[in-house]
Write a structure and sequence with these properties.
Layout lengths: L5 H10 L4 E4 L11 E4 L6 E5 L4 E5 L4 H10 L2 E2 L8 H4 L7 H7 L6 H4 L6 E7 L5 E5 L9 H7 L8 E8 L1 E2 L3 E7 L4 H12 L5 E7 L4 E8 L1 H14 L7 E4 L4 H6 L9 E6 L5 H8 L2 E5 L4 E6 L5 H5 L6 E5 L2 H7 L7 H14 L16
Parallel strand pairs: 1-2
Antiparallel strand pairs: 3-4, 4-8, 5-9, 6-7, 6-8, 10-12, 10-13, 11-12, 11-15, 14-16, 14-17, 15-16
C-alpha cells in the first residue's frame, strides 16, 4: 500500500481488515508483520521559511532532500539524524517521517537535543482513520506540543505521521575536533564529562574503545571555534595533549556506527548514566563505541550473545539493534517493560489504534 495523499491514507486505514506494517523507507530496523504501508508517496516540502527557522514537510520526504534544501539556505537539522542503512544492511531511502517516528538523533543530541525537541507540530492518521492535526507551524505556537512528542519515538504504533513541522538552525561556519589518545572508558567518560560541563559548547563527545581515542567537537563561527578549542584543550590537559582535526571529521561515521557495518556479530545499543557506563562496558565485553558523552554505547558481540544476561542490573537498558531473526525472536529487540509502563502503553495503543492495526509486535517505547 502506497497512498499519495493524506485522504487516501485515511481511506486505506479505515478499510484495513488486518495488521499494517507502517514505514517510510523501511531503513531503520526489522519490519513488523502485516501488509506493508509506506508513506513514501506522501512527500514534498510544503513550507520553508529560513527567517523564522521553520520547515514543514510531508512524512515521505527523503531526508536527503530536506538536508539539501536546508543547506542551500545555510541551515540544518540540528539533531543530526543517523542513517542506519549500512549498519543494518537495509536499502531504501530514509524519510523525514521515519526520523520522527524513531526519534533518530545523532551525536549533537548532547548539546542541541533530540528530534522530538525540534517538533513544532504534526499531522497524523490514527487507527480509526481520523486525521489529527497537532501543534503549529511557527516557533511561537506550542499548542498540543506534547501529543506530537508522544508520537515521536513511537515507531508508528500510535498513528501514521503524514506531515511534520520542525524548527531548524543555522549551519556552522567552522568545525573543529579535539582528539585525545590513550583513554580507557573510565578516562574517556571523565574527559567528556569535563568538556560537556565546560562553557565551550561541545556539540559531540564520543570514544572508540578499541583505539582509545576520545573526540570532542566544536562548531560555530571560525574565529570563536578556534578560541574555544584552544581554551578547552588547556582545560583538559590532565587527559593528555589534544590533536586538532579541522573540518567535518569522522562524525558522520560515529553517528552511523559504520565501522560495525561490515563486521560480523550482533549490535546492541546501551543507554545508562555516563558515570555507570565504564562498569557496564566491563560486563559487556566485545567491541565498544561511546557516544553522547558516555551516555550511549554501541556494543558488537558474537552472534546469539545474550548481552542483557551479561549486564545484570544494566540489562534493562540494552536494545538489540542488529541480529539474525532467530536471535531477535529469542531475546527480543527491547527488554521487558515494567508493569506500570506496560499498562500505560496498552492504554495508549487502545486510544490511538483501537483495532491494533499499526506495527504489531513493535514497542511504542520512546527511543533512548
Amino acid at each position: 500500500m502506497r497512498p499519495t495523499s493524506e485522504a487516501e491514507l485515511a481511506d486505506m486505514i479505515r478499510a484495513a481488515r488486518g495488521p499494517l506494517a507502517v514505514g517510510g523507507g523501511f531503513t531503520r530496523g526489522p519490519r513488523a508483520e502485516g501488509e506493508p504501508l509506506t508513506v513514501a508517496g506522501i512527500a514534498g516540502i510544503d513550507l520553508y521559511e529560513p527567517g523564522s527557522l521553520t520547515l514543514v514537510a510531508k512524512a515521505g520526504t527523503p531526508v536527503a532532500e530536506v538536508e539539501r534544501v536546508l543547506a542551500e539556505g545555510g541551515q540544518r537539522l540540528a539533531f543530526e539524524p543517523m542513517d542506519l542503512r549500512a549498519l543494518l544492511g537495509t536499502a531504501g531511502e530514509p524519510t523525514l517521517g521515519g526520523v520522527i517516528a524513531t526519534n533518530a538523533s545523532g551525536p549533537r543530541r548532547v548539546q542541541a537535543g533530540a528530534a522530538r525537541d525540534f517538533l513544532l507540530g504534526m499531522r497524523f492518521v490514527d487507527g480509526t482513520g481520523m486525521v489529527v492535526s497537532n501543534g503549529g507551524r511557527v516557533m511561537k505556537n506550542v499548542t498540543g506540543l506534547d501529543l506530537a512528542r508522544l508520537l515521536a519515538g513511537s515507531h508508528g504504533t500510535l498513528g501514521v505521521v503524514t506531515e511534520v513541522a520542525l524548527k531548524v538552525l543555522p549551519a556552522p561556519e567552522a568545525t573543529l575536533t579535539l582528539a585525545f589518545g590513550g583513554h580507557d572508558p573510565a578516562k574517556a567518560v571523565a574527559c567528556m564529562s569535563a568538556a560537556l560541563g565546560s562553557p565551550f559548547e561541545v556539540t559531540g563527545a564520543a570514544q572508540d574503545a578499541a583505539s582509545g581515542v576520545t573526540r570532542l567537537r566544536l562548531e560555530g563561527f571560525a574565529q570563536a571555534v578556534a578560541v574555544r578549542a584552544e581554551r578547552l584543550a588547556k582545560l583538559l590537559k590532565a587527559w593528555g595533549t589534544a590533536e586538532v582535526e579541522e573540518g567535518p571529521g569522522p562524525w558522520a561515521a560515529i553517528r552511523d556506527v559504520t565501522d560495525f557495518a561490515t563486521r560480523p556479530g550482533d549490535v546492541w545499543r546501551l543507554s545508562v548514566r555516563p558515570s555507570e557506563m565504564p562498569q557496564a562496558l566491563a560486563l559487556a565485553g566485545g567491541a565498544q563505541r561511546l557516544d553522547w558523552g558516555g551516555g550511549r554505547a554501541w556494543v558488537l558481540v558474537p552472534e546469539g550473545t545474550d548481552l542483557r544476561g551479561r549486564l545484570g542490573s544494566f540489562g534493562p537498558r540494552a536494545v538489540l539493534v542488529r541480529a539474525a531473526p532467530a536471535t531477535r525472536a529469542a531475546l527480543g529487540t527491547l527488554p521487558p517493560e515494567a508493569p506500570a509502563v506496560t499498562m500505560l502503553s496498552r492504554r495508549l495503543r487502545e486510544r490511538f489504534d483501537p483495532r491494533g492495526l499499526f506495527n504489531p509486535g513493535l514497542s511504542e517505547a520512546r527511543a533512548a
